[in-house]
Design goal:
With 275 residues, the protein is an alpha/beta fold. The chain has 12 helices and 8 strands. Strand 5, helix 5 and strand 6 form a beta-alpha-beta unit. Helix 7 packs across helix 12 and helix 8 packs across helix 9. The protein is elongated and about 70 Å long. The two termini are 31 Å apart. The mean pLDDT is 91.
Length: 275
């Protein structure tokens, strides 16, 4: 895939539909030089500030006289697609690339409602809010290499981007990385609760759990060439406390089995929501 520079993006007209928490996180990663119109009927003060700072046009609705955009990024709530589609259809045309972060809405759903020929379906996650997210993305067969590169450039403003070649794999992406932050947050809750059971004061136990989880994550980020398995082995002395703890986590009914069931439940539900 060829790279797209910020200067190339500045030549595009981009229509951004909806800007809640996830949408705003993606928007914050856009270059200030891009020609962006943001359509959001109920903008937050934060969104208004962001649009002022980056000279983005903020509007309450699309108009029938609007010309098709080069890129239309859909960041509304999935259940709003049916009602919003007629109003935003004038913003799409044969040359428009539609990037959708609508959970559960397949390319077929978008194709029936919008006039574009190229569609990218993406699933970002909440660390996008601090530029540390990861988005899984799928492009339909009519999406050109240039359009795919544009999607890559726009989504990467909020973190890394990983592509899948089959749309149904987006459900698995949802189950691993889309829902994944919630798993990590719950792990932190459970570690803190276990520390309290072991005798630690509640606030201290939570501080220890939060710092441990975030620090371990930062280690994995900084040392990407080292596998998590090796990092784990590096802190596990034979016969030590960590080894005793891992004996519980790595039992047949331990964490691997639990997370397998967890991810499968999320994948199955994501598929059901996709219809």
């Amino acid at each position: 895939m060829s790279a797209i520079s910020p200067g190339d993006l500045s030549k595009l007209s981009i229509a951004f539909i909806g800007a809640g928490k996830m949408g705003s996180a993606l928007l914050a990663g856009f270059s200030g030089g891009a020609k962006v119109q943001v359509i959001e009927p109920h903008p937050s003060a934060e969104l208004e500030r962001l649009c002022r700072e980056k000279s983005f046009e903020l509007r309450a609705s699309a108009a029938a006289r609007d010309a098709p955009a080069d890129v239309l990024l859909l960041a509304i709530k999935p259940q709003m697609l049916e009602s919003v589609a007629p109003a935003i259809k004038p913003l799409t045309g044969p040359g428009t690339l539609v990037i959708s972060i609508l959970a559960g809405k397949r390319v077929a759903d978008l194709t029936r409602r919008l006039s574009a020929g190229a569609f990218v379906r993406a699933m970002p996650n909440t660390p996008a809010a601090i530029g540390r997210g990861v988005s899984g993305a799928f492009a339909n067969e009519t999406t050109s290499e240039e359009q795919r590169a544009i999607a890559q450039a726009l989504l990467s403003g909020a973190g890394s981007v990983e592509w899948v070649e089959e749309e149904n794999l987006i459900d698995a992406v949802t189950a691993v990385s889309g829902c994944g932050p919630a798993y990590v947050f719950y792990l932190t809750e459970c570690m803190a609760a276990a520390g309290v059971e072991a005798g630690l004061p509640e606030e201290l136990s939570m501080r220890l759990a939060r710092a441990t989880v975030s620090g371990a994550g930062e280690l994995m980020r900084r040392f990407e060439q080292i596998t998590p398995m090796v990092l784990r082995e590096n802190v596990t002395s034979p016969g030590g406390a960590t080894a005793a703890a891992l004996g519980v986590l790595m039992a047949d009914d331990g964490m691997k089995s639990l997370l397998k069931r967890t991810v499968e439940a999320a994948r199955r539900r994501a598929g059901e929501l996709s219809g």
